[in-house]
């Protein structure tokens, strides 16, 4: 079996969905499992719904309408006849969402978040599955929540591999075109959970692992994995082959083309991961597999914007010791702040972090009781794997370098823009 993942960008409009059909015609669709994300920026639009809901904003209705309108337009463009059963199926899902919003009693933001954002994937797979049938390809629509079981850590749920393996091994039909949702799972009470933003790549890997799939292909709007994000680097080059290890490193440092959790299950079973263009599906793209680190061997650039550089120093000039450091890390964990770089000296400790959930203010209040806290906001973290002088010069040009850290294979540079 092959597992294909189509992300938000590939199904952002009717032309995108038609293109999925064309891709399947070209590469084959027998014995395939399609993992599909929410269309375009739907997850962001649903995040706005959740914000309005919690703020009791009068624009809640309008935010829901926005999501419905967007999908309705795609349906009209795809099916023309609004008597087609897909209209009802999608309407049904949105009614469920509205029912949830008007009846929910839980004050738990993360719980509500998962119940709401999941409609993005439920709707996209419903549309895609109906469209494939409309064009003559029979599909099996799978509710992924019956398969991927997780803990109840909403918004960042951990997979229960034992349960998930059993569910998938015994229930996915081979020889069919199966269609399922990325990003979602369910907890032991069958409430919807999500695996973290951009988690659909990971869903594809979970299925591949449990099915002993022959390969995973993630279809992207770029030719494959490149040595830099082509949105920010004009001369980015395609990497033909990268090892699992290198891909894990790149994803870990923030190359968003592959979700970092994707590689580990694939590497365990040596299942190759193809990253290919949904615009040119017959081009080779990149293969992530066992073997040489990088082919061609080039410096790889990763950019993380909007980082926070925090420096903690002891108030009384005492050393920052192991016990302080473990306490500091426990706090970062508790406040869900991700640490991307660490630098330690005798009396100070610097970390470059990402405050995805806006918790730094609260954390700062706790830290300030024990340490002198200084911070620089909106800095950029550059990582260069396999760096050389030219690569470093390129990054540093016209910028203020605040911190630099070098190891054998990796250079990290924190910069702020020159005013
Ligand atoms: P999806 O539609 O599957 O969610 P994403 O938008 O998350 O796809 O990932 C594709 C994007 O990843 C590209 O448009 C590109 O801007 C970005 N990207 C970041 N780093 C790289 C890289 N090293 N190589 C290729 N693309 C990259
Ligand atoms: N729809 C989810 C997101 O936008 C998951 C994904 O696209 O991978 O984060
Ligand atoms: Mg994405």
From TrEMBL:
The reaction(s) annotated as catalysed by this protein in its Swiss-Prot or TrEMBL entry are:
L-aspartate + ATP = 4-phospho-L-aspartate + ADP
SUPFAM superfamilies tied to this protein:
ACT-like (SSF55021), Carbamate kinase-like (SSF53633)
Does the record bear Hydrolase in its keywords? no
Q: Which Gene3D superfamilies match?
A: Acetylglutamate kinase-like, Aspartokinase, catalytic domain
Q: Name one GO biological process term.
A: threonine biosynthetic process
Q: Which domain of life is it from?
A: Bacteria
Q: Where is the Aspartate/glutamate/uridylate kinase domain?
A: 2-277
Q: Does the keyword Zinc apply?
A: no
Give the GO molecular function terms: aspartate kinase activity; ATP binding
**Enzyme class, first EC level, given as a word:** transferase
Q: Supply the EC number(s).
A: 2.7.2.4
The record lists ATP as bound by 231
Q: What GO terms fall under cellular component here?
A: cytosol
Q: Which family does it belong to?
A: Belongs to the aspartokinase family.
Q: What protein does this entry describe?
A: Aspartokinase
Q: What is the lineage of its organism?
A: Bacteria, Pseudomonadati, Bacteroidota, Flavobacteriia, Flavobacteriales
